[in-house]
Amino acid sequence: MSRVDWDVRGVASPAGVVRVPGDKSISHRAVMLAAIAEGRSDISGFLEGEDCLATMRAFQAMGVSIARRGDQLVVDGVGRDGLQPPAEPLDLGNSGTSMRLLAGLLAGQAFDVTLTGDDSLRRRPMKRVIDPLRLMGAAIAGDDQGRAPLRIGGGARLAGIHYDMPVASAQVASCLLLAGLYASGETVVTEPGVCRDHTERMLQALGAAVTRTGNVVRLAGGQSLQGGAIEVPADISSAAFALVAGAISPDADLVIEAVGINPTRTGVMQILRSMGAAIECRNERMCGGEPVADLHVRGGALSGIDIDPELVPLAIDEFPVLFVAAACAAGTTRLRGAAELRVKESDRLAVMAAGLRAMGVAVTEFEDGIDITGGPLTGARVDSHGDHRVAMAFAIAALRADGPVVIDDCANVATSFPGFETVAGQLGLEVAVRTGTSA
Ligand code: S3P
């Protein structure tokens, strides 16, 4: 497998107008729902990152015609019962979203299917979807530790359940709603904290009745979806790198265009603002059922804060780069209630703590969080452990380091942010890419 390392230097202040790629969560859902809808869907703004391409290829392997036409992805929906058995196990690469959502969508099909992925994905917890899917009547099994490969037996008769989710996970809630489409009766999911609600929004946009009362979501089984135009906004999780680049660079003046600001995703802006960052939403509008704005960020002085644990699910993917903001702030930033970060693409608490320490930052790690005390950053060599968001977070740290930051194992940046190296130029970074072969 080819290996990619980066040498990153900060050379200028972030300035001007940047665009970041389409939202990863929404792109996955767009392909999945369009594939099982009736008729054609035209998806604009689709993220052509490896994770979403893994979802796309999975549906192509199940007989769905999906083609690029101009800057749109055109999906010819096969209807709720039109998927065909794939000839081989579906390889979902690095993508937890693909695996957990597909587990639900495929649990009610007539055919057997196996879901697998790369080393990182095969280490991630899948019992959180296996257990409730079994309660619905699914024939699904992982290995003896509840990890992938997941084998799903066809022909199961699913029945709706009322499920109180033990962790606030949009992937689990979405998995159950997708299984619920194929179940008899009603599927009801109670969320213990706010989760991203893109699945509900898109199900509604494609004609399904899904209702929410507070933290309880309900969907009646047997509903069909109708394809149509689906617009994917820019990903706030990718915009987060630009937001932090702006917030930590004293002379920055940057606009990030057409970013999704769904309130279940804006924890990063709330946290940065409480640290003192100047971030404004301009030109707010709706785009395909999702709120969107141009984000304007200016540099300034940041202060350490105690992060409200209720914001954790709303900023779950942004903590690697928020830790970099904390390392550039005056005083200590404290995060707790974030044990989920240990089971993402890497153990993001341990991996970020190690890299920040290598850069001279004072860090104390806790089982469910971290304390970071801001100070000068030194150039260093850090290991991303193949985690896209860790790699990009350390690239942003180079803006404030006194020398180059050498980041190992950056190939997976292409899972969520293809072209990051180019956008990084607009953020005032020079990224030299070294490729080789890894064991
Ligand atoms: C996602 C939900 C989050 C997030 C992941 C994408 C989604 O995971 O970390 O990157 O698209 O539903 P959890 O819901 O498991 O926290």
UniProtKB/TrEMBL annotation:
This chain belongs to the protein called 3-phosphoshikimate 1-carboxyvinyltransferase
Q: Which InterPro entries match?
A: Enolpyruvate_Tfrase_dom (IPR001986), Enolpyruvate_Tfrase_sf (IPR036968), EPSP_synthase (IPR006264), EPSP_synthase_CS (IPR023193), RNA3'P_cycl/enolpyr_Trfase_a/b (IPR013792)
According to the record's subunit comment, the protein's assembly and interactions are: Monomer.
Family under the similarity heading: Belongs to the EPSP synthase family.
Q: What is its EC number?
A: 2.5.1.19
- Top-rank taxon of the source lineage equals Bacteria
- Gene3D superfamilies xref list: Enolpyruvate transferase domain
Q: Which residues form the active site?
A: 317 (proton acceptor)
What exactly does this protein do?
A: Catalyzes the transfer of the enolpyruvyl moiety of phosphoenolpyruvate (PEP) to the 5-hydroxyl of shikimate-3-phosphate (S3P) to produce enolpyruvyl shikimate-3-phosphate and inorganic phosphate.
Q: In which pathway does it act?
A: Metabolic intermediate biosynthesis; chorismate biosynthesis; chorismate from D-erythrose 4-phosphate and phosphoenolpyruvate: step 6/7
The record's keywords, sorted A to Z, are: Amino-acid biosynthesis, Aromatic amino acid biosynthesis, Cytoplasm, Transferase
Q: Which reaction does it catalyse?
A: 3-phosphoshikimate + phosphoenolpyruvate = 5-O-(1-carboxyvinyl)-3-phosphoshikimate + phosphate
Q: Where is the Enolpyruvate transferase domain?
A: 15-422
Record: residues binding 3-phosphoshikimate: 24-25, 29, 169, 171, 317, 344
- Amino-acid positions noted as binding phosphoenolpyruvate in the UniProt annotation, renumbered to this chain: 24, 96, 124, 171, 348, 389
Q: Which sequence ranges form a coiled-coil region, renumbered to this chain?
A: none
Where does the UniProt annotation locate this protein? Cytoplasm
| GO MF entries | 3-phosphoshikimate 1-carboxyvinyltransferase activity
